[in-house]
Fold DUF3456 domain-containing protein.
Amino acid sequence: VATLSLQSLAVRNRRQYQRQRSSILFQTPKKMANSKAWVWLLLTLFAAFSLASCVDDKCAACNAVSEELEIGLSNEKPRNHLDMRHRLDSKGERKGKVIDYRVSELRVVELLDGLCEKMQDYTLQKIDSNRQEWVKVDDWDNLTTNKQEARAYSKAISSYCGRLLEETEDDLADLIKKGSVEVGDVSKVLCQDLSKHCSQSSGFQQVDGNDHGSDGEL
């Protein structure tokens, strides 16, 4: 009887061990999948934080956007007035307005439309141990730095540009139509007067984000 009891106990223990082992084997892939998901989430959050931090110097980023807008202004060619006289009156004369292109909505659209897409040609380049600056890349294939990182920076400043224009576009458009935005003045208008991302004393000095609540959104 004692022998049978010992045998039964051994069988019962062996079955319990097998059940526990099977449970562990089945749970391991799930736990591994969860671990991989957590690692992926952490890497994604780290990448997002890195992209956000690369435009922490909003003044420098704003100046880069201003530089690209100045290129657009410099490349403008003389344009004829816009003839909006499309209606004929009872005497057969054309009715409507003739608008100076320089103060037209069309000019604003042509200057600002696609501006942020062009910012994807920019990346953050290390100048020395303490300084980085946004530069325009002419040939990505010949880029000596990490291309994946450089592309991430270009997407970051393009996104920043979109948020910047979302906040300032209406006022910027009005100033363009008034002739107040000219080559050499874009950084002052956009980065100092409108967005307040640069101080009034220097177009290359960042404003403390605590002084302007809107800075945290860009």
Summary: The beta strands are 82-83, 87-88, 94-95, 98-99, 122-128, 131-136.
